[in-house]
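User: I'm curious whether this sequence folds into something compact or stays loose and floppy. Could you predict its structure so I can see for myself?
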Amino acid sequence: MTTDSRQEAKSFTDDFIRRVKANRKTRWIRFALVSLLFFLWVAWLGSWWVLIFWFLLFDIYITGYIPLTWWKSSKNPVVRGIMSWVDAIVYALILVYFVFTFIGQNYQIPSSSLEKSLLVGDYLWVNKMAYGQRVPMTPVHFPLVQNTFPIINTKSYLESPQWEYKRLKGFGNVKRGDIVVFNFPAGDTVAVKVQNPDYYTLVKMYGRDAIYNNPQTFGEVIYRPVDRRENYVKRCVGLPGDRIKIVDGVIYINGEAMKQPENVQFNYYFQMKKGSMSEADWNELGISVDDRHEVPVTAEDVPGLRSLGFTVNPDGSVPSIYASPLTPAMIEALNSNPNIAKLMKMPAPKGEPLYPDIVSEDWTRADYGELWIPKKGASLKMGPRAWQIYGRVIRDYEGNHDAQFRDGKLYINGQPQDSYTFKMDYYFMMGDNRDNSLDSRYWGFVPEDHIVGRPERVLISFDKDKSILNGGIRWNRIFREANVDKY
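Assistant: Here's the prediction. I'll summarize afterward.
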């Protein structure tokens, strides 16, 4: 070592000691507390390489070599004012990032698929510790948006780096009947301009080439990482290893009929003897504006309506007929109404694009299955039908992107296999508004790495059909339990 090098080392050592000694006891106490929390967090995380960031904490609290607060010594008051706001915002975003990633976050109910258990306009607190926090697979992302910055419509995350799926220890596992927030499995590929229906449904409707060749209609087709896919909320009705079947709207698990949630809804027709439904009538039943449908009737419909038992007046006119999703309580109220002439459950349509594509023509959303739900560690003999049902699971969800089925065998990495052993658990999710929910019946199983958390409380609830000053805030739902009607 040269003389200059020795002098530089001595100078650095002296400066380091000076900086360390310059700190008050209270700052050392704060640093010790922060370090303790950091070490506990790293132990919980189970990724010890993260300890390297402790040295950054040491510099922030003790030595101060990185000039993070340079602006405090600026002589320009404008710089000090602006940077004080920037400093506060950065710290707030870091805090929000950690809270949203490892503890929980708010979530808005955007659709009616879980009505009346959860309502459109409910803002939920989702507990990510319930099933164990998922270590972010896309670590570099803006914490306040899921995947797209509003207005500028650009990605709110960087696709690299990508971390492997890992879930920390939580308070329990997903149970049958839990309402669960998860990333939309079919949201891995997205046509940016048309996201409802999803990309795979669009492919069934129009063909893949039509979507890629018409960006003016469908927009750019992009891939989204697992944790940046849209958040969905449904009820878990099927657990790993279960066999699920639906008969006339009743769910059977392993051959046993499951109890329906109290607020389960199915679509019904109902007819008035005279007059029509007023807004007060709709409000008394608790049916939202979007679910109030009067059925148009033409002369050609009259014979069919008469054969179904609907009232037809002697002059050929037909009293008002309505269609709405109804809960058992609503059905009871209508049955006790002397002005109701007819109440009939709406039959499920045939030919809907259900999952999987090979289902019999007899399958509908109300008469569905039977399907086996994949379970971690379980092996399945792989034949043509099994591949048609579970091929997407094996190829896309389990990471075997080169998997093929040919010559009567499954090939992974070019090696033939008679069976496949699943790496993850899977779940079957459905909405309580059974006839108005796009759920696992349409797009399949939810892999465990897509599970986000469990809703715990309704933070606040807004009724979009009313103004804020006229019942727009549902005060009776604030801090109400969100995970209701468990089996």
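Summary: The domain at 266-345 is CATH 3.30.70 (Alpha-Beta Plaits). The chain has a mean pLDDT of 90.
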